[in-house]
């Protein structure tokens, strides 16, 4: 079942087309990576999907209900964490979630239980500190809890790990991953390693246009370049090996250093077979031979730079 559907979604600001004929079909329960450089149209897309921006053209459906700018029917299905969430700084996390729940018509034991569960999920249980004393990471975690207070079917996260330190990023990503299968996560970011870690599918957006959409494994298989890292005992041996393989049909790029050679290859099986044979035939002293799988960052750079 598709819980997010967008057809020919377009948004123009005067002479600038921020989003251009975007089509989306996102399955229930998935963690969907919405990836692109800064200024690619990610936030504009999210604001259209949740009804904050009126599309120039195109249609949007959330859980089968058409989204109309200024109307709230479809909003009951969603939670939203903006890139810079705002809070009442004099409140505690409990106070803030209680206010959020009451605004949605929740009360009593049902609300109290929900707040306890959410604070446990985001690691803020038993925290009596005022929000004004929270770190950026703690605020992001509280923002996720607030976005889940209405038990949405979809949660939209706009750059939730941006500007966080490594510990804060890990904490937020761990929380998002726990939501898999329970709620659909629309995860907008420009941090490729975050997408690679937790997402099922990824869409790459550039200058408002969908460049490609696929699973991460399929992207790597289609666009990734395998690399071999070979360490020998001397610069002379690296030079010899470089000269022996530079004209091989499976070599895409060679990057020699003092005692190491990085070989980007188009046929990993042939490379893994031929290079050890050359090393053995010339009595080279092999210290290390590592196959490096392509990263999402490498795939992203190749896809975007080839436009």
Automatic annotation (TrEMBL):
Entry-linked InterPro entries: AAA+_ATPase (IPR003593), ABC_transporter-like_ATP-bd (IPR003439), DrrA1/2-like_C (IPR025302), P-loop_NTPase (IPR027417)
Keywords for the protein's UniProt record, in alphabetical order: ATP-binding, Nucleotide-binding, Transport
GO MF annotation terms: ATP binding; ATP hydrolysis activity
Organism domain of life: Bacteria
PROSITE patterns for the chain: ABC_TRANSPORTER_2
CDD domains linked: ABC_DR_subfamily_A (cd03230)
One Pfam match: DrrA1-3_C
Every ABC transporter domain range: 4-232
Family (UniProt): Belongs to the ABC transporter superfamily.
PANTHER family in the cross-refs: ABC TRANSPORTER, ATP-BINDING PROTEIN
Listed name of the protein: ABC-2 type transport system ATP-binding protein
Organism: Natranaerovirga hydrolytica
């Amino acid at each position: 079942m598709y819980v997010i559907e967008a057809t020919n979604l377009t948004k123009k600001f005067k002479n600038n087309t921020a989003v251009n004929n975007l089509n989306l079909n996102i399955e229930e329960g998935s963690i969907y990576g919405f990836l692109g450089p800064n200024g690619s149209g990610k936030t504009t897309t999210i604001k259209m999907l949740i009804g904050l921006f009126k599309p120039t053209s195109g249609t949007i459906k959330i859980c089968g209900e058409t989204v109309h700018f200024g109307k709230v029917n479809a909003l009951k299905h969603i939670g939203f964490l903006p890139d810079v969430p705002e809070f009442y700084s004099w409140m505690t996390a409990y106070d803030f979630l209680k206010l959020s729940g009451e605004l949605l018509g929740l009360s009593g034991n049902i609300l109290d239980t929900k707040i306890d569960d959410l604070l446990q999920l985001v690691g803020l249980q038993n925290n009596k500190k005022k929000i004004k004393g929270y770190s950026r990471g703690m605020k992001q975690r509280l923002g996720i809890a607030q976005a889940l207070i209405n038990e949405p079917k979809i949660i939209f996260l706009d750059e939730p790990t941006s500007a966080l330190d490594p510990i804060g990023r890990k904490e937020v990503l761990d929380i998002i991953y726990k939501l898999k299968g329970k709620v659909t996560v629309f995860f907008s970011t420009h941090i490729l390693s975050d997408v690679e870690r937790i997402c099922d599918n990824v869409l790459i957006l550039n200058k408002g246009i969908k460049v490609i959409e696929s699973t991460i494994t399929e992207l790597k298989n289609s666009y990734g370049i395998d690399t071999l890292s070979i360490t020998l005992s001397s610069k002379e041996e690296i030079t010899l090996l470089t000269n022996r393989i530079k004209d091989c049909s499976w070599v895409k790029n060679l990057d020699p250093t003092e005692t190491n050679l990085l070989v980007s290859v188009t046929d990993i099986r042939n490379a893994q077979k031929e290079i050890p044979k050359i090393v053995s035939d010339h009595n080279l002293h092999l210290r290390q031979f590592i196959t490096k799988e392509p990263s999402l960052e490498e795939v992203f750079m190749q896809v975007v730079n080839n436009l």
